Amino acid sequence: MSVDGAQLWTLNQRLLGVVMDACTRELAELGLETKEFFVLAEVEASPYPAEIATALLLPKASVTVYVRNLVAKGFIRREIDEADLRRHRLVLTAEGTKARDRALAALAAEYDRRLARVIPQDRVELQRILKAMLDLPA
């Protein structure tokens, strides 16, 4: 039996969408829209808006709006980059860290709820496959 990449991509996207939809209420209770959450979750790995835009495949103008909203909500702050005083880097605030962690916990719980439908050995195999696709060590 053959399954093409487009079919797998579509199934994966549908799964991620269903998980995100199931967590919309929790995100809203934290004061986050879905895309704001993704930006917030990316700040530590990519502290500059242009890097966030690249990492999340979002237009820079959209990231600017999300960053502005997250600053206004007190979840992140802008700091002068000591290495280049012309640049600002983004830093999570304590509130931002708390909101990010709670949102990630909600997503993990929903994903785990769905993953519980899969037997443990298949979960191990899924992890191995995903790591292989990302070129990560098994």
* Spatial shape: globular
Please describe the biggest sheet, giving its number of strands, its sense, and whether it closes into a barrel.
2 strands, antiparallel
Helix proportion range: 55-70%
What is the name of the CATH superfamily? Winged helix-like DNA-binding domain superfamily/Winged helix DNA-binding domain
Average of pLDDT: 93
Distance between the termini: 26 Å
- Regions with pLDDT < 50 over 5+ consecutive residues? none
Number of domains: 1
CATH architecture classification: Orthogonal Bundle
The main sheet orders its strands as: 1-2
CATH topology: Arc Repressor Mutant, subunit A
Domain HTH marR-type: 1-135
InterPro entries: HTH_MarR-typ (IPR000835), MarR/SlyA-like (IPR039422), WH-like_DNA-bd_sf (IPR036388), WH_DNA-bd_sf (IPR036390)
Pfam families: MarR_2
Organism: Streptomyces fuscichromogenes
Any chance you could write out the topology, listing elements then pairs?
Layout: H1 5-22, H2 24-29, H3 34-42, H4 49-56, H5 60-72, E1 76-81, E2 84-92, H6 94-115, H7 120-133
Antiparallel strand pairs: 1-2
Helix pairs in contact: 3-5, 4-5
Description:
There is one protein chain. The protein has 138 residues and is mostly helical. It has a single domain, classed as Arc Repressor Mutant, subunit A, CATH 1.10.10.10. It is 65% helix and 11% strand. The protein is built from 7 helices and 2 strands. A two-stranded antiparallel sheet has the order 1-2. α3 packs across α5. The two termini are 26 Å apart. The mean pLDDT is 93. This is HTH marR-type domain-containing protein. Pfam families: MarR_2. One of its GO terms (molecular function) is DNA-binding transcription factor activity. It comes from Streptomyces fuscichromogenes. InterPro entries: HTH_MarR-typ (IPR000835), MarR/SlyA-like (IPR039422), WH-like_DNA-bd_sf (IPR036388), WH_DNA-bd_sf (IPR036390).
